[in-house]
Write a structure and sequence with these properties.
single chain; 12 helices; Ferritin; mainly alpha
């Protein structure tokens, strides 16, 4: 119902006059230029080559805006009507500047490609709706320009980004992702999966009560997650080490620590003790192999070393819990 009421205040594209189409094109170019400038500012420090690419794209959008304003002045005078995307039904959406600042380099490039494709479709439709020869000419030229930009935006090397520059930027982005999310998350998953084995299985074999074991497992998992999360936040602010936001790292560590413990605590919701235990043991086995796989894939740890560190360590902690609980 709310969407319908909002759409009542919008106009169909085919209802726009030639002046309004020019005004809409001007505001579109202004918005796109500002978004590209935001991309450039956000990426300047870590990805200077891509930032320069977005600076050039912003300059081109400003040039398009200038052409459109000059034609509007010639045809309709100085006063440009306020027509924006949100005033037209079914018009493409642009993310606000504050959301654009959160995009990584690859997503920024992808959004730029989508923006250019949307601009091309707009100018193609606008040409069909206008009858004035000079307006059709300019809109057609802009459609051709945007069509060329689609390839340029998607293929960064076409904008003078060398293979070496692109490789360095992609490697930097991968490194940042690993240091901010993978490494802290892996540490949390290892701690949650391994350190909770002893208390959970010790409780299980000492009491053989599934509900008590479940409660201990939940408490141990959540407690470990909170502790690990706060420890990660307090240990490094990321400024010198370059490991990224401490809040993001803390969340990654805390969440994965909790999930690591919950994996073999949740089976004890099964009332049958031995069935719950067998399921928990199977999940532990899967968890340990997943950790070894992550170490091998993202941390480039050899399989033999990953298996020795994770699987053997987990088995020893599990055995300690069983011996203590069953003793």
């Amino acid at each position: 119902m709310l969407t319908r009421l909002v759409n009542l205040n919008k106009r169909n594209f085919h209802q726009l006059s030639e002046q309004e189409i020019l005004a809409l094109a001007i505001s579109n170019e202004e918005d796109d230029s500002r978004i590209y400038q935001t991309f450039a500012e956000n990426l300047r420090e870590d990805f200077p080559d891509t930032a320069n690419m977005f600076v050039e794209m912003a300059k081109e959008e400003n040039e398009h805006r200038r052409w459109l304003i000059e034609l509007h002045r010639e045809k309709f005078g100085e006063l440009i009507p306020l027509v924006r995307r949100e005033h037209v039904k079914g018009f493409f959406y642009r993310k606000p500047d504050w959301l654009a600042k959160t995009l990584n380099v690859e997503k920024a490039r992808k959004q730029a490609t989508e923006m250019e494709a949307q601009a091309y479709r707009f100018y193609t439709a606008a040409v069909k709706q206008c009858t004035d020869a000079s307006i059709r000419t300019l809109l057609g030229d802009l459609a051709e320009a945007e069509a060329g930009h689609i390839t340029l935006a998607s293929d960064s090397s076409a904008r003078n980004l060398s293979d070496e520059a692109i490789g360095k930027e992609n490697a930097k982005e991968k490194r940042d992702f690993i240091l901010t999310y993978i490494q802290p998350g892996l540490a949390g998953l290892m701690d949650g999966s391994v350190s909770t084995l002893a208390p959970i299985f010790a409780t299980a074999f000492a009491t053989q009560n599934t509900w008590t074991t479940f409660l201990v497992g939940i408490a141990a998992s959540i407690g470990a997650g909170i502790s690990m999360g706060f420890t990660e936040v307090a240990s490094d602010d990321g400024i010198i080490s370059g490991r990224g936001s401490p809040i993001k790292r803390g969340l990654a560590t805390g969440i994965m620590t909790t999930l690591g413990g919950l994996g073999h605590a949740l089976p004890y919701l099964i009332p049958d003790f031995w069935l719950a235990t067998y399921v928990a043991i199977f999940i532990v086995f899967v968890e340990l192999w997943v950790i070894a796989w992550i170490q091998n894939k993202f941390m480039e740890t050899p399989w033999s070393k990953a298996i020795f560190q994770v699987v053997l360590g987990g088995v020893l902690v599990f055995a300690a819990g069983v011996l203590i609980g069953g003793g």
